[in-house]
Design a protein that fits this description.
Layout: E1 6-11, H1 15-26, E2 31-37, H2 40-50, E3 54-57, H3 66-72, E4 81-86, H4 92-97, E5 102-105, H5 110-125, E6 138-143, E7 146-151, E8 157-161, E9 164-169, E10 172-177, H6 180-184, E11 192-196, E12 199-202, E13 206-213, E14 216-221, E15 226-228, H7 231-242
Parallel strand pairs: 1-2, 1-3, 3-4, 4-5
Antiparallel strand pairs: 6-7, 8-9, 8-12, 9-10, 11-12, 13-14, 14-15
């Protein structure tokens, strides 16, 4: 399958963007553009008629947006690989939830597109049946003009910062535009625990808990940091240490 040609559909509500993407595709080996669509409804019709291997899909479109398109075709036994191409980084978690294989920020470079095509080729060479994952095992985050994947098991802690969350891996952190409660709902509770409204940590990153007096408890982390535990979350933390 490594040399297979991917029959590709381009979906974008801007004609200029569709033409630009066609030009980029022309410079990538193994890509054949079989059609274009200017909105979500037209995209669904084109997918049904053309059965493409790959859909390069804009997100922000009038009417049916790209996320809704991806959701609508999620049940297909031979569904195409979905690569989102968007000017916005705030939809990255939603993109994962609809099993997109990559997330490209506009303007899309030919090199970045080529790497996404390689992922699409691997996706198409795998099993036809895609098993839905219950828990989030990776996140896409913006970094230096691109989107990178971070395995959730690599995260030490997650901290809320206004409308963002800061994802920590050792001394390195990444900002993601999302709500901490929304991310918490997709994390495996056997792996992560919330210590206060603004902090989630990986359970095995907690070294101990300490009573500071006056009913105040803190969690001592493996890296030496301490996080005060919110009263709402203390009972669950204590119970988890006894398990």
């Amino acid at each position: 399958m490594s040399d297979a040609v991917l029959r590709t559909l381009i979906v974008d509500d801007e004609a200029v963007a569709r033409e630009r993407m066609k030009l980029q595709c022309a410079g990538v080996d193994g890509v054949e553009v079989v059609g274009t669509a200017g909105d979500g409804h037209a995209a669904l019709e084109a997918i049904a008629a053309l059965s493409p291997d790959l859909v390069l899909l804009d997100i922000a479109m009038p009417g049916l947006d790209g996320i809704a398109v991806a959701e609508a075709i999620g049940h297909l036994a031979n569904r195409p690989a979905i690569v989102f191409c968007t000017a916005y980084d705030r939809h990255a978690l939603e993109a994962f939830e609809v099993s997109a294989i990559d997330y490209l920020l506009k303007p899309v470079s030919r090199d970045r597109l080529s790497r996404a095509v390689d992922k699409a080729r691997l996706f198409r060479s795998g099993p036809a049946t895609v098993i839905e994952r219950r828990w989030l095992d990776e996140l896409w985050v913006p970094h230096r003009g691109a989107m990178i994947r971070i395995a959730t098991d690599d995260l030490d802690r997650i901290e809320a910062e206004r409308d963002y969350v800061r994802l920590w891996i050792g001394a390195v952190s990444y900002l993601l535009l999302d709500a901490i409660t929304r991310i918490e709902g997709r994390l495996n509770p056997e792996t992560f625990i919330r210590l206060r409204r603004s902090v989630i940590v990986r359970r095995d990153f907690i070294a101990s808990i300490r009573h500071e007096g006056a009913g105040v408890w803190s969690a001592q982390l493996v890296n030496g940091a301490a996080v005060r535990v919110g009263p709402t979350y203390l009972a669950e933390l204590k119970a988890s240490l006894k398990a």
